[in-house]
Amino acid sequence: MSTAGFTHCALHVRDLDESVAFYEDYCGLKFVLEHGEGDGRTVWMAAPGAEDDFVLVMMGGGEVRHPDKGDMTHYGFAVSAREDIDAIAERAERDGRLHWGPKSFKPPTGYLCAVTDPTGYVVEFSYGQPLGPGAE
C-alpha cells in the first residue's frame, strides 16, 4: 500500500467571509481557490508557499461552536518568536477571542496560547515545538 499524503482539513464555518478574514489576519493564510456559490461556496486557504501541500478548506453554513476551556481540540500554528505568543494573546484579549492565555509547558509542547475563530474553533499558537517556525 502506498503512503497517503495529508493534504487538507475541512471546516464548516458560520460566516465564510469573516472566517477568511480571521485566518488571513491572525494566521497569515492566503486565499488559494474558491468554488461554488451561496450555501455551497467553499474557500481554500494555505500558508504562503504551501499551497500545493496543505490547505484549510472552509465551507459556509456551519454552526457556532462553544468549546469549554478544557477541550483540547484545536488547530496549531507555530510562530518564530516567544514574544509573538504574548502579542497574539494580548490582541486576542482585546478582540474577545482569547481561549487560553500564554503558558509554558515541557517539551514538546512549548510556549502557547489559543484563540477562538469566528465559528468558535480553537486555534493554538505555539513557540518551541519541534515543528514549524521556532522549532527546538
TrEMBL record:
It holds the Pfam family Glyoxalase. Keywords: Transferase. Its EC number is 2.5.1.18. Residues 5-128 form the VOC domain. CDD domains: VOC. Gene3D superfamilies: 2,3-Dihydroxybiphenyl 1,2-Dioxygenase, domain 1. One of its GO terms (molecular function) is glutathione transferase activity. This is Glutathione transferase FosA. It comes from Methyloligella halotolerans. The lineage of its organism: Bacteria, Pseudomonadati, Pseudomonadota, Alphaproteobacteria, Hyphomicrobiales.
